[in-house]
Amino acid sequence: MPATRTLTRQHADEATLALPFAIPAKEWFSPIESARVLGLSERFIEKLYDEGRQLSGHSHNAGSGQRMTKRIPRIWLVTYAIRTARYSDESLGDALITCLPHLSAAALLRIADASRRLAADKPFRS
Amino acid sequence: MSLIDIIPGDRHSKKPTPTKAEAAAGTPPSDWHAHLDALFPKRAMLTPQEVAKALEMNPRTVVRLFSGKDKTRPWLAGIKFSAGAGQRAVRRIPRDAAILFYAQTANYTPEDLVRAIVEVLSHRTLKDLVTIQQHLTALIRRKQS
Q1: pTM, 2 dp
Q2: Cβ of B105 and A115 within 8 Å?
Q3: Do B121 and A111 touch (CB under 8 A)?
Q4: A87 burial via Cβ count (<10 Å: 0-12, 13-18, 19+)
Q5: Would an 8 Å CB–CB cutoff place B23 in contact with chain A?
Q6: pLDDT band at A114 (very low <50, low <70, confident <90, very high)
Q7: If DSSP codes are grouped into helix, strand and coil, which group holds residue A68?
Q8: What ipTM score was computed for the predicted complex, to two decimals?
Q9: Region B120-141: what's the mean pLDDT?
Q10: Phi/psi-derived region of residue A59, left when phi > 0, alpha when psi is between -120 and 50, beta in every other case
Q11: What is the mean pLDDT of residues B17-35?
């Protein structure tokens, strides 16, 4: 019964609070979609986007109007969600890992280098 | 060691800080090429459908960006021809033009993204960092092979 399966999956998605499952499996998000994922208003997302410090992306205009279509890459959404999290959970790291394959080898090398240096500075707790 | 020592960039620079759009425009095309390379199929010329699929856009939006009248805004460059006697035109977009378009529309630089990720990593636990490190090593090996 496909309908039942879809409904079951929908309920499971809604019941799951872990970040990787809360973000739909897609690469680009509109401000409305980002607002839905983060539980914020669209206007606040647009404000963050315009500031460009915490949320960035691409804006284009295919029509004749003044309003630009803004699109936020998944990795910016995940970085914002992790940066603002005031709790520690393994799922936050998992969400970041899912975004990394799209980055270039040079960027990955720099992140790996920084991560190694950060890990060396962290106190070891068993 | 403080975070400012780890995050890449010149913290002693006296130059005025450029705006986000200026910084994105000033980024070398090769950086954008490396950053957006994984998005598009590995072919020199792409159809509007392929570009639309890569960027999760409606194909009609891609066609409108291709044949946009207002050239002051970023637009998709490419070729348009009609092979038959019909009215329907065939459009092809060079892969580099698609990458250039996305570089022009960005309000960040690839450098900003790396900084943001490193900043996020600085708040992770040692266990998380080790896990991420393992994934990074595997990814880098796969990309370099």
Answers
A1: 0.80
A2: no
A3: yes
A4: exposed
A5: no
A6: very high
A7: coil
A8: 0.80
A9: 90
A10: beta
A11: 74
